[in-house]
Amino acid sequence: MTTSSKTIQAFIGVGFLAVLALSASAQECAAAKSAAQTDSKDIVQTAIAAGQFKTLVKAVEAAGLAKTLSGKGPFTVFAPTDEAFSKLAEGALEGLLKNPEALKSVLLYHVVPGKVMAVDVAKLKTAKTALGQSVTIDTSKDVRVDNAKVV
């Protein structure tokens, strides 16, 4: 396993993810869906508006992905919340922010091309990421992507 793969696995396993497919999170899905329909917000705008993805937005910008995720989609992002980022080992986030290529890989591992709404995720067993790797989706108790709980 490469260092980048280890980082990706550690990163996705830290905690809570939210599904952003022009929706903010499971709790804010209806409100964000309504806003997306009227305002046509892209993923980055939706993340900013949700308020719990400040670190993710900072990482997306540092990796040079803001324009891509604001562009033609649709994209679904299994988005780590600020709370999930806070559970990373000390220095891990800072290290990724200083390494845009590794950060880009980590972030693309959280992106699935296409629009997959939170209710659709529960029907899936796997999803292929923009990085070209598959994530495992488990809905036996709650929704988990590679063992990270989706909120």
Protein topology:
Elements: H1 3-12, E1 17-20, H2 29-39, H3 43-50, H4 54-62, H5 66-70, E2 75-80, H6 82-86, H7 92-97, H8 100-108, E3 111-113, H9 118-121, E4 126-128, E5 134-138, E6 144-145, E7 148-149
Antiparallel strand pairs: 1-2, 2-3, 4-5, 5-6, 6-7
Structure description:
- This protein has 151 residues and is α+β, with helices and mostly antiparallel strands.
- It has one domain: FAS1 domain (Roll).
- It has nine helices and seven strands; from the N terminus they run H-E-H-H-H-H-E-H-H-H-E-H-E-E-E-E.
- The longest helix is centred in the N-terminal third of the chain and has 11 residues, at 29-39.
* Global Rg: 14 Å
Question: N-to-C terminal Cα separation, in Å?
Answer: 29 Å
Helix-strand topology string = HEHHHHEHHHEHEEEE
Query: Could you name the ranges where pLDDT drops below 50 across 5 or more consecutive residues?
Result: 1-16, 21-39
For CATH, the homologous superfamily is named as FAS1 domain
Tally of alpha and pi helices: 9
Number of domains: 1
Structural class: alpha+beta
Fraction in beta strands: 15-25%
Widest beta sheet: strand line-up: 4-5-6-7
User: What's the CATH topology name?
Assistant: FAS1 domain
Question: In this structure, how is the largest beta sheet organized?
Answer: 4 strands, antiparallel
Which bin fits the share of residues in helices? Answer: 40-55%
